[in-house]
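Page 47, continued from p. 46.
Same chain as before, 948 aa.
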Amino acid sequence: MEKSCSLLIHFDKGTPALANEIKEALEGNDVPAKIDAMKKAVMLLLNGETLPQLFITIIRYVLPSEDHTIQKLLLLYLEIIEKTDSKGRVLPEMILICQNLRNNLQHPNEYIRGVTLRFLCRLNEVDIIEPLIPSIMSNLEHRHPYVRRNAILAVMAVYKLPQGEQLLADAPEKIENVLTTEQDPSAKRNAFLMLFQCAQERAINYLLTHVDRVSDWGDLLQMVVLDLVRKVCRTNKGEKGKYIKIIISLLNAPSAAVVYECAGTLVSLSSAPTAVRAAANTYCQLLQSQSDNNVKLIVLDRLNELKSSHREIMVDMIMDVLRALSSPNLDIRRKTLDIVLELITPRNINEVVLTLKKEVMKTQSGELEKNGEYRQMLIQAIHSCAVKFPEVASTVVHLLMDFLGDNNVASAIDVVVFVREIIETNPKLRVSIVTRLLDTFYQIRAARVCSCALWIIGEYCISLSEVESGIATIKQCLGDLPFYSASEEGEANDSSKKSQQINSTTVSSRRPAVLADGTYATQSAASETAFSPPTVVQGSLTAGNLRSLLLTGDFFLGAVVACTLTKLILRLEEVQPSKVEVNKATTDALLIIVSMIQLGQSSALPHPIDNDSYDRMVLCVRLLCNTGNEVRKIWLNSCHESFVKMLSDKQMRETEEIKAKAQISHSQPDDLIDFYHLKSRRGMSQLELEDAVQDDLKRATGEFVKDETDANKLNRVLQLTGFSDPVYAEAYVTVHHYDIVLDVTVINRTKETLQNLCLELATMGDLKLVERPQNYTLAPESSKQIKANIKVSSTETGVIFGNIVYETSNVFDRMVVVLNDIHIDIMDYISPAVCSDAAFRTMWAEFEWENKVAVNTVIQDEKEFLDHIIKSTNMKCLTALSALEGECGFLAANLYAKSVFGEDALVNVSIEKQADSKLSGYIRIRSKTQGIALSLGDKITLKQKGGS
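Result:
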């Protein structure tokens, strides 16, 4: 069994040192060898070895050494070894150690005195400490501050022992005297800490006596003062006013750590607007003054918490928060934008959008790394602002349209989606947006952006001039026709055949090629190294962006071009009185579509046209040749109506999410409400008055209602042992982000004293124990509360297991009680989140871990099963409610969640109702990490049948 020690030392168990070798090294005069031997002895003892034969050797040969390293290792050795027998009595040989400790406490070297005093802080045996009390107290007046500060800590540790108040009855009074005369900041802090923990009233009196000088104290002491203030205000809320004044005075402290703690303490103790505003100002100042990115992220988290609880105050701080965009770190910028977007109001929208526009323009000039990603974030933020406040769209839409040809395709897609939404929601901007889009269309290089831009042109070019400009722009970007010359293809084949007949050793062929600029050319290749220069196909020299993309084989874009031309021709028939012009435009459109079909069916490209694109183009040809009124209505009206419905559904979903976030809390009719108007205001500061108002409002609206009910708390209590075991144990599990706290209650059900009782825990998965187990003595039929802290490093189901080991006076062997396993639920670490459909598809394609779970449930309704999966997995359904309406026997939905570690969890539910009314299908889980995929799959398999 591992033993506890204040120092963690790595030990390789594969090469244990022999006790005889260590003994020989200790008996020699070689100091480095002695140090090495002491290290080996300490590591062996820590890992369960007893080494009783070394004790006398160390007393004889190590105790007299004056080397500082040896003395430090000696104290570690003394900390680890067993100092008591099986009945808890101090071993006789410990008298030798006691004499050595007394000598060290009177040693002329201050380092040896100091480390010995630090060692005494970790000593629990009263019989050893009692003879040392005079020496410890005498060190409180030592000339060196290192000795004094450690002497104060030793006094505090002794006073905290069960019999400490009897050993040091006058310790608080002496420490208070030391506090008044001490000049060293660290020693002064330790003295105040001792009073805070052992004699709180004395600490409070000292603080209130010197309240005017708190701002002049050192930062170490100020941090302890804040701890004291927090504790006192929570236990006695009536005296909160005078302590908050101390906190506000410390907001101007030179130490950033003190200022940060002050702001946090202020918010935790008071909800008054004055206090919250002061804390928010402090956080914003830290955001600007601190250069460490981690500090900035932590401060942004605190601001985000303030935004959730005090939004109306944070609205006034929005421009101060926006200054954090000056940081080059993308995470800081993303978190800043997330906070700002939820604080936008009609009063500050113009300032925010102006700042975002300046940041967008900065990304044009600078050559900074990840400029494209930052620009994309800004575009999305501006999009969100323009959707909430349409009146600002006119100031940003034309600026953003300059980025339609951005090299970062994601940014360009965001821009064109933004333009598509704004042109529908802002009718006044339609003419200017269409004109600007037609002017900048030639700059677009991404196929997806071209497709969306063409759809906008086809839907919103309404007037005669716009329709004609739209057709002309498309024709210009397609270049000269045809796209591929059939005669040259025949010539190439003929020349290839002739060359094969003339010389069988020299094989020559002509093959099509796409040049670097996207134009199409042919080149000769021979089996030797001689190549003929490329010959550009006629008409490709003036190729535009559409032509370049078509010649790479993108026939989906070709189908979009065909549909856009068809819509424009149909609209031209309505607005153009001249039939001749209409017929000419129709002929040109038919020629373009047929040329694209010809290119797709030729051997010029490695991939022929796909069937869907071919069918779409042929349909466009038929419509242009013969159009009926019903078909015209579908093409010119129904598509637009579907888009409007999609936007309304999206807005409805966002409204529902906002309503869901709003906390609705109610107060019970018999809850007590104190009306502060009827209270005496004598002696109350403005801040206390504001605080009273806020408390009354919270009590009236039920915000003081506890989050967890008693039933939920009982669900977290786990039985670890059986009722018939001599030791009964149960644990209350608290999961909070990166930490798991096990509050274990251990009850001795026997009539005997249990000695060296130890709760030994081990973990499986990405869980890690923080502390080493301690030994306890448990009286008959008594209980003990033992806390165990566990760190979590990833989102996956973990297991905590272990046992309780103890000794009794009757049985010499150690007794073991095996504990039940504690399973950590993944649901404690993931929460519903929202992402765009495009982001979901991108992550779905990138993530490598997939877990496929077959549907096996007694539920017969598709929507009921989907709701059950959403509730069981704690995920958010991204699929719109309108898409889930109706009864068709099929259902497909996407679910999304994020973990506290920032990991993404994607789920796709695809189910079908069979003839026997049973549901079949699959649930696919994808994640970047294996743990989430497996754990979520196990959870769904367990829960999908509709059970608990």
